[in-house]
Design brief:
2 copies of one chain form a homodimer. By secondary structure, the first copy, chain A, is an all-beta fold. Chain A contains 1 helix and 46 strands. At the A-B interface, strand 4 and strand 5 of A face strand 4 and strand 5 of B.
């Protein structure tokens, strides 16, 4: 293993270019250890690498800059020695493309301008609220009585969501806390960093934090595609424009002590999920991490449903449907696909791919070995040849918007030894063939030895473990196979007492869990369309 | 030459897909004649070809769909037999990439939705004006009292310019005729297709046409790159989202009876230049064409200045500067580049490229044979190895916004037998190293036997032939070499009497031109920084 020192490549005043030179020199090589001196590296996009990328669940496809680009490399270790990589602009911090055996470690990622604005509630009026801008780095301005970002690549973005955090506890207090779409109402600049929002319908307490959010997921922190055996260790994301870690069509990924952590007076970390895995295979291990205050889930793992839009003899035309998930090349010759009703998501036939033609970034012609008479145009197709096992172990998940983790992977899944302090659902089994087109059902999930502390503290009606109901079910068929929940501790005080909603599953085990501090309300587990359930006697069960 | 009939490929109900199948089957082939039945082909983007493109002077780089894609082909003729190719959405009608000896003929191009709205002035108020929407196809809506396009690829665009046409004469009546930036002021929907615009500063006559323009050049009509020997014959563009014909890094192009023509009650044709040539070589012939009512020039031919942003020994880092002109790969090993002051545009040194590294879509490292001690960082670089000859012959240019034609090509240039009925400048010699970065000076231009009829009818103070002055000149050095203007007819009645402004040129000939119907004001020719001039005696000359 050859050792290379980044200091030997810091020949210009532009570390973006220095990084470019280093990784351009290393492109295609194997067996390299790159060591960085501990420093704060300020990276501007001017001299950085660029590729045309389609980043799943981000959208905004096309040319993307990257501070670090590892491409066509094998057996590489990047040791940043605890450095900060601070990018300025819509850039991916680290891109890993068509590479294997890649380790990235000891690194902090930041982006000072991520299309959000932190504000503090300072006064209530008849129908307005006054907000104090807490930071200046977000670069918003007022236009037609609307708050918009400064132009970025020729486009100015409006505030489309907002969230509340409680000042004292730093806990999440919900989406749309002002009860309005901010972008539809009038905002007035009062000077001295003060703004007045009109037609407010809800009035969060004075002192609470309102985050005005114009995020458009223009770049991820770490992005991996068509790569295998990736390890990110001791990596902390303070801020980035999209997801903290996004991997698509990768095999074997380990994130260890990979964190989204608040910093510098902010209440927000990543602008989307902390970690996200699309059409991955092999084993995904996420352990010893802390995920806090990102805009979306701590983890989301799923495949992609495509929609059958046309068929011919031995041919299916499938379309990648969600506008933020196009251009992801999820099919390989030999893959098996299931065809399923987009509502019930129960498959009714399988095909084998013999040929693939990418017509454009969302439309794909698949030649299949079998005839296609039984395929209904308009139904969904799922590639079942990619399945990832998941271990989500010894992690802390707290105070982020959205859910704790989203599980939609057919591989064996273990969630253990974690602490969840979530405002709503902690573990969600989600899949959707009509809007998100994220697939699919689970086969074997174990949730054990976790602590759920005050979970659902904001969304008190939500189940902590939730199988999202389908709009339709099929008699005697189940979307999920087996989900086991045992040895966990539920500290339900001041949270939701709906411990779980199991739905559309063949086998449910909910045993040996400890439920404490129930606040007088009786904790319970809900069941619907479950074929077989082993349930502990001391927890109430409601069958719907 | 093999003949292929499109009708044999119309196997599905989607002509976008049928076109895709045909040209996908032909990709890489030579010696093909493709015949289309005369028809109106409706093309939706769903099944069309896509490439990541950087279209010069358009911007919005990334994945672009094309109804017809000719790629890696030689000796191909497409005969559309007078058909209409009507695309729906942000699509290029015809893309020609890495091909040679390509003929496209007998075709009409349309796009019903091109981010513009035709309106008619129906009433004046104290500070407002009432406009009647003339068409419904433009799909604008009101948002925060602002007129914006419906969402397209996730973005909604505002009205950033507007133009006036006189109803009776259909003549252009200027940019920003309401005296405001429409996007900064309030618009009210009055129902019944009526809108009220407030804070209007000018009041165009009732009955005149106001075109509200949210165009962002998302696609060209015909786009050619890295191709040679292209002929477009009998092609008419009624509407498209960007330029009618855009070619970059191509050699030998002929447009014959290639027109931008009004249609269907519209006053507008292409949303940008009718024809545009960037870093082309060989011979560009544009003849027997009519260009009317497009948003920008009838023709613009130029190279690209890049900015030297860094240098090292035998290395220059140059940047493509204009945000709508990035990713155009204009350099080849062996090319000669000139370095010049960005204000005077007078070159002071030349280098020879020995190696090229495209760092990203706007930054390029050029290794050069010579040392770089004499290069000043911040100055401009021009590739002088690409020069195109231009023949612009027997064309009609009328009533478009902007100029008639823009000439910035070092090759021999002839403009002859044309009729110009232009609201302002007819022939402009333009180049700019500070904002547009379009290069360069001309060497040998002949303007002969043209008729300039009532030119400058709206911009009466402008010269009809204009060398745009540089902010600085260099003693004894000239940006342009020779410009000859002879045998032309200037019918100046109701137009500008400033026939020409010659500036920064070595040799000017202005002889044997006929000037008629001068309305009592005396026509004249203006000279500044001209080394040598042969001028006809019967036209007044003003030396500045």
């Amino acid at each position: 293993m050859k050792t290379v020192y980044f200091r030997d490549y810091r020949k210009t005043d532009d570390d973006g270019y220095n990084l470019y030179c280093l990784f351009n020199a290393l492109q295609g090589q194997s067996g390299i250890k790159v060591i960085f001196d501990k420093d704060e590296y300020e990276i501007y996009p001017d001299y950085c690498s660029e590729r045309n990328l389609f980043v799943s669940n981000h959208g905004w496809n096309g040319p993307k800059r990257m501070a670090v680009l590892i491409e066509d490399m094998q057996d590489v270790e990047l040791d940043f020695s605890g450095s900060v990589l601070r990018v300025h602009g819509a850039m991916i911090h680290i891109g890993i493309l068509k590479s294997s055996n890649i380790t990235v470690k000891n690194l902090v990622l930041e982006n000072p301008q991520t299309q959000i604005m932190h504000t503090k509630v300072v006064a209530h009026g008849e129908n307005y609220i006054d907000l104090l801008k807490m930071q200046g780095k977000e670069q918003f301005h007022m236009r037609h009585s609307e708050l918009v970002t400064d132009y970025m690549d020729g486009i100015s973005f409006n505030v489309w969501i907002h969230q509340e955090y409680e000042a004292a506890t730093e806990e999440f207090r919900g989406d749309f806390p002002l009860g309005i779409n901010i972008c539809d109402e009038k905002i007035e600049d009062l000077g001295n960093d003060m703004m007045r929002l009109y037609n407010v319908k809800r009035f969060p307490p004075i002192g609470n934090i309102i985050i005005l959010n114009a995020t458009r997921r223009l770049a991820a922190g770490v992005f991996c595609e068509n790569s295998s055996n990736i390890l990110c260790q001791n990596v902390t994301i303070h801020s980035c424009m999209g997801m903290g870690f996004a991997a698509q069509i990768c095999e074997n990924i380990t994130l260890s002590n990979f964190n989204t952590l608040k910093h510098d007076g902010r209440y927000y970390t990543a602008n989307a999920d902390a970690t996200h895995f699309v059409s991955c295979s092999g084993k995904v291990i996420v352990e010893n991490c802390t995920f806090e205050c990102q805009l979306d889930d701590a983890l989301n793992i799923h495949g992609m449903y495509t929609k059958v839009v046309r068929k011919a003899n031995n041919e299916l035309f499938v379309k990648e449907m969600h506008e933020a998930a196009k251009g992801i090349r999820i099919f390989r010759v030999g893959d098996r696909i299931q065809i399923l009703d987009p509502v019930s998501l129960i498959p009714y036939t399988e095909k084998t791919i013999t040929e693939i033609e990418y017509i454009n970034s969302d439309l794909i012609r698949l030649a299949v070995a079998e005839d296609t008479d039984d395929v209904i145009v308009g139904d969904s197709a799922e590639n079942i040849s990619y399945t990832a096992e998941l271990v989500f172990r010894n992690n802390i998940v707290r105070h982020n918007r959205a859910r704790g983790i989203l599980i939609a992977s057919k591989g064996k899944t273990v969630i253990e030894d974690c602490l969840f302090i979530s405002p709503g659902v902690c573990v969600q089994f989600e899949a959707n063939g009509e809007y998100w087109y994220e697939s699919g059902g689970v086969n074997d999930v174990t949730i054990r030895n976790n602590t759920f502390e005050r979970c659902g503290y904001f969304y008190k009606e939500y189940p902590l473990i939730n199988c999202v109901p389908r709009r339709a079910v099929a008699e005697g068929k189940y979307f999920h196979k087996k989900i086991s929940v045992y040895g966990n501790k539920f500290i339900v005080k001041d949270g939701s007492v709906k411990l779980a909603h199991f739905d559309n599953a063949e086998k449910i085990i909910f045993k040996d869990n400890i439920v404490t501090e129930n606040d007088g309300k009786e904790p319970f587990v809900e069941l619907y369309q479950v074929a077989d359930a082993e349930l502990q006697a001391d927890v109430k069960t409601v069958s719907l």
